[in-house]
Amino acid sequence: MPFATLSGIKLHYLDSGRGTPPVVLLHAFPVNAGMWDEQIAALAGRWRVVAPDLPGFGQSQPSPEGEASIDGWADVVAELLGSLGLGPVVVGGLSMGGYVAFSLLRRHPHLVAALVLADTRAGADTPEVLQRRTDQQQKVAEGKVADVLEAMVGTLLSEQTRAERPDVVERARALMASTPPGTIVAALEAMKHRTDATGELGRIRLPVLVLVGEHDGPAPPSVAREMAEAVPNGRLEVLPGAGHLSNLEAPEAFNRALESFLSGL
Ligand code: MLT
User: Fold this and answer.
1) Which residues of the chain have pLDDT under 50?
2) What's the 82 CA to ligand 1 centre distance in angstroms?
3) What is the atom index within ligand 1 of the atom nearest the CA of 244?
């Protein structure tokens, strides 16, 4: 189980397969790199796949108190790539992982060969989302972390998944339950302060695959379509039946889209 110490943080990452271009997968909130198990299994026969637990998630140490930020995490990912001698790589990020991918591209463009943006958005938080994050932080501070996570199961998974796939629901619950309350609060704060990448989309000169679950509530297909259209070399795939955690909910369709994109690079 590989670990690397980067900027004083002991970071855990998954590292499987061989073949270029290497692929780096960045996980969503509030889960960890374990969410990529099906993608790693599908890709590792042809490509090297690296998937870090971002600081504070999974088995990685947290950022120092008050210092968690999307940009800081992008820097840690860049350092990890440097320590592994990798780059440029294909960077795939789902939701919060997409925010980190945008930051990595902005801060370390030489490390990125292509992007997969899944169930994410380029724009910053609306006032409503900012307020929702503050309410969630408050609840966690009051010890109601289980309520916050259970509400997220409702918003992150599609109605179809919740009705028909108890195994996926349990998996999502287990991944979320592994995230410490301090990390939940810190990550919500980090997301509140992320940079708006909307104005950068038109300048991305790389192949970009935009993936989205048909029933994604937090980052719906309309947002994904706008993003794919704003990128000169963008391609959109909508994954039927899936919600926001589309790689868990529709792994076969997700993997097909990913493999076809990687094969075409
Ligand atoms: C995620 O899945 O990473 C979250 O929905 C991101 C967010 O809260 O903006």
Assistant:
1) none
2) 27
3) 2
